[in-house]
Fold this protein.
Amino acid sequence: MEEISISGESIRLGQLLKLHGIAETGAMAKDLLAAGEVSVNGEPEQRRGRALVPGDRIEVLGQTIAVAAG
């Protein structure tokens, strides 16, 4: 599992996917979400604007990413 530290209270899911290098663009992030390739805390997620907070776990393309406070 990998961890991403955020400096604010939250980060949008689309931003995290781009920051982590999983999606090069917002459109690529949207496609991953629409294809059902992303889950947050074990639940499928399709909203690119979903706010993620420290403690959330994201699963995408076989990777698990934990959001941590920076």
